[in-house]
UniProtKB/TrEMBL annotation:
Its cofactor is Mg(2+). Pfam families: UPRTase. Keywords: Allosteric enzyme, Glycosyltransferase, GTP-binding, Magnesium, Nucleotide-binding, Transferase. 5-phospho-alpha-D-ribose 1-diphosphate binds at residues 77, 102, 129-137, 198. GO terms for molecular function: GTP binding; magnesium ion binding; uracil phosphoribosyltransferase activity. HAMAP family: Upp_B. This is Uracil phosphoribosyltransferase. Pathway: Pyrimidine metabolism; UMP biosynthesis via salvage pathway; UMP from uracil: step 1/1. PANTHER family: ADENINE PHOSPHORIBOSYLTRANSFERASE, URACIL PHOSPHORIBOSYLTRANSFERASE, CHLOROPLASTIC. Its EC number is 2.4.2.9.
Length: 211
């Protein structure tokens, strides 16, 4: 699997704000939005472009635009925080939604929402989720996208854990990973170590879905 580990001082600084337990919800959301912008920028590096004629106030020249804007698919909840930064960078992107919540005992993803185009063949898809821990949620999401015909899938995650990266790499699914860090391990509750805690809770407060 192709992995882009984004090694940049601004990425590392925003990630540190997110990791710090003293960071409140509002500052966490702000740092996540900034980091999301940077990761989407990096994930977009190889998007196909097309040329078109335009005129500046001075002369005729050639402009460049995306030939095929990707569809952005946040994994709800925590992925919701990455929609605005993604749309800021790619304003004409479409957005689809996959809702998953990890069962706190089994650590398996429980699906509760799927709002996507039926046919994703030929489309570039960015699936965005701040956290890749066991990999169960992202694998589930990528399988949904692949079942709809997607073959060009980029997972944009902020904190990835080595076990989740390994699971994704061994899945055989058509996915590449863009991430700010690969943390070494999970604890007994399947939280990433050192990680940043529960990303959904740190963005929005504790969730109240009974699983
Ligand atoms: C988090 C995170 C991922 C998942 C990662 O969501 O946003 O979707 O956990 O864990 P995994 O790799 O072990 O599957 P969570 O299920 O806590 O839901 P939330 O975003 O609603 O809090
Ligand atoms: N989900 C999170 O939000 N954080 C983790 O560390 C693991 C899963």
């Amino acid at each position: 699997m192709d992995i882009l580990l984004v090694d940049h001082p601004l990425v590392a600084a925003r990630l540190s704000i997110m990791r710090d337990e003293r960071t409140n919800n509002s500052s966490f959301r702000a740092a996540l939005a900034d980091l999301g912008t940077m990761l989407i920028y990096e994930a977009s590096r190889d998007l196909r472009v097309e040329q078109f004629p335009l005129t500046t106030p001075v002369a005729a020249t050639t402009g460049t635009r995306l030939a095929d804007p990707p569809i952005i698919v946040p994994v709800v909840r925590a992925g919701l925080g990455m929609i605005d930064p993604a749309l800021k960078m790619i304003p004409d992107a479409q957005v689809g939604f996959i809702g998953l919540a990890r069962n706190e005992v089994t650590h398996e993803p429980v699906p509760y929402l799927e709002a996507l185009p039926d046919d994703l063949s030929g489309r570039t898809v960015f699936v965005v989720d701040p956290m890749l821990a066991t990999g169960g949620s992202l694998l589930h999401a990528v399988r949904i996208l692949a079942d709809r015909g997607a073959t060009d899938i980029t997972a944009v995650c902020m904190v990835s854990a080595q076990p989740g990266v390994d699971a994704l790499a061994h899945s055989g699914l058509p996915v590449r990973l863009v991430t700010a860090t690969i943390d070494p391990e999970l604890n007994e509750d399947a939280y990433i170590v050192p990680g940043l805690g529960d990303a959904g809770d740190r963005l929005y407060g504790p969730r109240n879905i009974d699983l």
